[in-house]
Write a structure and sequence with these properties.
By secondary structure, the chain is an alpha+beta fold. Helix content is 32%, strand content 30%. It has two domains: 189 residues, FAD/NAD(P)-binding domain; 176 residues, D-Amino Acid Oxidase, Chain A, domain 2, CATH 3.30.9.10. Helix 1 packs parallel to helix 4 and helix 1 packs parallel to helix 6. The longest helix is centred in the last third of the chain and has 29 residues.
């Protein structure tokens, strides 16, 4: 039986809203309050940030009846490659028995017997329908579902076996779920969190991600590209076409201390970007305005502190090289709700979440951190080794399929 709980969800982004919706339907006797500094009437649909969701995340959102299929561009193929030059690359392939294989991995939905590998859409295109769904559900049960938008949380502290939240007035809750976090930020914006027993793992990669939208001639058609260059990864994610024009979201990672993008004008950026991309990506016709974001690791060693649990970016802010941040957060949210449904106490549910989420989140943290740090290493032969690894992965279908399944559904 679902427990009769008083739950506070701090943060009305995609992870917080997904958790609140899932909890409202799965825990029918619980009281759920969603806090966010954003006013409820603020239009979030125009937020241009781009999100890449795995197939597992798409399926979770479909279960919530909040998946905006009309706005999402399916990913049918992922194309990962290593930019030349890679010294002794051809000879290394021959020694491994890979012949003329390229430093490229191609993962296709049809090879994995799934309709799509994932999907790409704008942040606002996802948050707006999630918010509408929450408001509709809350209107149907106003006695237990509360929308506290325009109400920033200023402090949390333990209180009588639960947690006291200060959002203008002090209120006690059985459980506080912190589901908001920023790009490489120590704490959620507008929130003051009491010191935790063990601080987070933090590392500044001294890299910058330049993010924007590009117009492309050919190459996309549901294909996502990631190119490993000597400066860092460059990713193109397919977007819904604008009429006949193919569009893609660009994530261009470069060193912050010697940024090769910042001082270039649009025409120069276009030339440089085209030189970095594989031929299969087509021709970049134009680049929209680019916005820089600092990149770093900010991961909690433990998700749980008393009656407070962190999920999503509040639990782990990762480098975008593997595109797993939001997907991890959605899996955090769903696992937490199921644990609350099945456990006899909040403490028991949180212990289950701590242990059950550990393999998935630490595998993603370790893999992402290793890849991100590798672009700062200047070891001789490292690009060649990375290229050989990609070629070997392409030549071993069972291993490639296992990687694809982990990227789609997480570590199970």
């Amino acid at each position: 039986m679902s427990p009769d709980l008083n739950i506070a969800v701090i943060g009305a982004g995609p992870v917080g809203l997904a958790l609140a919706l899932h909890a409202a339907r799965t825990l029918p006797t619980s009281r759920i309050s969603v806090f966010d500094a954003r006013p409820v009437d603020k239009d979030v649909s125009a937020d241009p940030r781009t999100l890449a969701l795995s197939l597992g995340s798409v399926q979770l959102l479909q279960r919530l009846q909040a998946w905006p299929a009309a706005d999402a561009q399916p990913i049918l193929e992922v194309h990962v490659s290593q930019a030349p030059p890679t010294l002794a690359f051809a000879g290394g392939l021959q020694r491994l028995g890979l012949g003329d294989a390229e430093a490229t991995v191609r993962i296709r939905a049809e090879d994995e017997a799934v309709p799509l590998l994932g999907a790409v859409l704008g942040y606002g295109q996802l948050v707006a329908p999630l918010q509408r769904a929450w408001l509709e559900v809350a209107a149907q049960a106003p006695e237990r579902l509360f929308t506290r938008f325009g109400t920033p949380v200023t402090a949390l502290q333990p209180k009588d076996g639960g947690v006291e939240i200060d959002a203008g007035i002090a209120e006690r809750f059985d459980l506080a779920v912190i589901a908001e976090g920023g790009v490489f930020s120590a704490e959620p914006p507008g929130t003051t969190i009491a010191p935790r027993p063990r601080g987070p793992l933090r590392h500044d990669y001294r890299q910058t991600a330049w993010v924007g939208t590009v117009a492309v001639d050919g190459g996309m058609a549901g294909r996502a590209f990631e190119r490993f260059t000597r400066h860092g990864p460059v990713a193109l994610l397919p977007l819904k076409p604008d009429g006949a024009q193919a569009l893609a979201a660009l994530v261009w990672c470069v060193p912050s201390d010697d940024d090769p993008v910042r001082e270039l004008d649009d025409a120069q950026r276009l030339v440089v970007l085209q030189s970095l991309l594989p031929e299969a990506a087509g021709r970049v016709l134009s680049i929209g305005a680019l916005k820089p974001f600092p990149l770093g690791l900010n991961a909690e060693r433990t998700l749980v502190d008393g009656a407070t649990v962190r999920i999503g970016n509040a639990a782990q802010t990762l480098h975008p090289v593997a595109g797993q941040g939001l997907n991890l957060g959605l899996r955090d949210a769903f696992e937490l709700v199921l644990a609350l449904r099945d456990a006899s106490s909040v403490a028991g549910a949180l212990r289950r979440v701590e242990w059950s989420r550990a393999p998935d989140r630490w595998a993603a943290i370790a893999a992402t951190d290793f890849l991100a740090r590798s672009f700062t290493w200047r070891w001789p032969g490292l690009p060649a080794a990375r290229g050989l690894g990609l070629a070997a992965l392409q030549a071993l279908p069972p291993l490639k399929s296992a990687l694809a399944r982990q990227m789609m559904f997480g570590r199970r």
